[in-house]
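Now for my pick.
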Amino acid sequence: MNERRITVKDKNVMTFTLAVLLLAMIILGVSFSYQDRSPKVIHSMDVILTKKTHSEAPDDPDYLSANNQQGGGQLDKKSRPTDIVSGPAVTPDGLSKQQTKRQQKSRQQQDTAIVTSVAGQQKQTSNKNQQQKKQRLQEQKTNARQQKLAQMKEEIARKIQRYAKKPRTKYVSSSTKAYEYAPYINQWVKTIERTGDLNYPEKAKKKSFKGEVMLTVGINKDGSLHEIKIIKPSKFRFLNEAAKHIVELAQPFEPLPDTREPVDILYITRTWQFLPGHLLRQK
């Protein structure tokens, strides 16, 4: 087996290649270092919340902040914040627990306000319905009272009208002391007796015949006959008709006199006797 010999030319090519590589490393600064495979630790970023702001931004800020602040204090070197309380934890939606609690509390307050408002509206509606119901009942009672009052007024008006239409009457008898009507009654009795003597009933013309009838005669204001009532009839029926017929024949009478007591109808009650000798006299 033939072994390949390294010639001078091969040595020169190898030397030239190593020299080029070394020169490239020097020029390009390529270096090799040990790579640590242990887990990397990412330090947290310090963020300071400030309430005040400065018009100029610092050239070399030590911490992140929402507002521009110029350094101050008594230390020569920067110092981390000493607040032992960590920042609020952030929920997946980007809100802190405190903000979440505040939002929950706000929602609860809103829900309570809504429930209170709805309850208040329902109460107001209930009160309004009750007031409307009471008002309707009051109106119904008022209408009922007004209708009843109207009926009473109508009834009173009818009674007044009936009373106004009802004639004013006056009743006199032989025992009644009516001085204002005494002359008129005496003249009226004489008229009836005279008419009775002239129109004496044929059945009563017996020599010993005797009978009597009590009549009430109503005379209108103008002297016309209003009505005849038999108060106490005779045992002889024909005398009742004869007495009524004599009164009818005697009309018209004189008009009623003007007296202090206005009268539309004057009722005169008398007992008439049919006597022997064809005579008619008041008892």
User: Anything to note?
Assistant: The two ends are 205 Å apart (CA to CA). The first helix runs from residue 8 to 28. The mean pLDDT is 78.
